Amino acid sequence: MADDEATPRSAPREVRIDKRQVRVLAHPLRMRLIGALRVHGPATATTLAELLGTNTGATSYHLRQLAEVGLVTEDPDRGSGRQRWWQAAHDVTSWEPSDFDDDPDARAAIEWIQGDQVRHLVEHAERWFATQHEWTPAWRDALGMGDIFMTLPPDRLEALRAEVWQVLERYNREARAGTSADPQARPVQVFLAAYPLLEGPR
Length: 202
Hints:
Blueprint: E1 14-16, H1 19-25, H2 28-40, E2 43-44, H3 45-52, H4 56-68, E3 72-74, E4 85-88, E5 92-94, H5 104-131, H6 137-142, H7 154-178
Parallel strand pairs: 1-5
Antiparallel strand pairs: 2-4, 3-4
């Protein structure tokens, strides 16, 4: 989701993270800070600390670390005096695992980030399971997950992922442009994943 819903853009601002950025990003609080800024928009360290259940000193320190590698920036239009407002520098973070094959530290960092994404998905799903009875039938039918088995070579799988991602981006652009006035609209998070079907000894 965009970090600034008030200004529609034709496409999400995307960064393909480099080795330095991935090493800085591989930290649980920093991942949560980026996510909070993208979902909720610009905020102060104090606001983020309250939102994430931590302290202002920790959020301030980690925001500065993220700023040093260009993943967050200050919002000069909102700052006043000593109060600093921060915003996500991008809407989408992308990479290919092979980007870091020649750097063991960066490779370990991206593997941690991927594992954290899976942990987040599990926690997100468990919270949904615990509260889904509170939602309307329309939402309960619309939300959820599914899977499909197929046999594809790497280039076709990459093409599939790219095409599905284009669909997601199109819906995201349309949501920014028009659904804010729809009383039924709610923020949702869509995960896109493809993994090999491992059978027998590896």
